[in-house]
Amino acid sequence: MAHEAEMKSLAKYLEKNNLKQTRQREMILAAFLGAKRHVTSEDLYQLVREQHPNIGYTTVYRTMKLLVEAGLATERHFDDGITRYETEHEHHDHLVCIKCGRIQEFECDEIEERQREIAKGYGFQVLRHRHELYGHCAACRES
Fold first, then answer.
1. Of 76, 91, 118, 123, whose CB is crowded by the most CB atoms within 10 A?
2. How many Å apart are CA 18 and CA 52, to the nearest integer?
């Protein structure tokens, strides 16, 4: 079964918090994990609705809040004020096009190492960080 580990994590979280395991929640989780990109609640609702037209927007929105609480999704807030969700995975940073909204993930060991050195130099313990670069993607610069 695809996404078996995440489904088990969701079931464990729901049981621990005395919440119901529903087929709708499972379908929303599967659609979210299958999206493999940053999605808004509206994006995810449109994806879910293609397969399951009986699931409403409010159910998708509430389920995403639940997935965040369960540690299966992360809320991201970029400069446009729109909440997007992404899966919990290895640390990465973002290039955000302010013209078309495209978000490109990237990883750079040198940046991570330099951040650790800077924090250490100041006697600072980093618990988490976000690195976002805003500008125009190649496609928007060409148009």
1. 76
2. 26
Q: Is the pLDDT of residue 42 over 70?
A: yes
Whether 52 and 63 have beta carbons less than 8 Å apart is answered as no
Query: What does the angle CA 126 – CA 127 – CA 133 come to, to the nearest 5 degrees?
Result: 75
pLDDT over 70 (residue 53): yes
- Packed helices 23-35 and 4-16: angle between N→C axes, nearest 10 degrees: 140
- Interval 6-11 mean pLDDT: 92
pLDDT at site 2: 58
| Rounded Cα distance, 89 and 26, in Å | 19
Domain 4-87 has CATH 1.10.10.10: yes
63-67, 87-91, 111-115: least confidently modelled range: 87-91
Specify the DSSP element, H or E, that contains 83. strand 83-87
| CB of 39 closer than 8 Å to CB of 47 | yes
Are the C-beta atoms of residues 47 and 31 closer than 8 Å to each other?
Answer: yes
How high does pLDDT run on average in the chain?
90
List C-alpha distances in Å: 139 to 36, 80, 82. Answer: 21, 19, 22
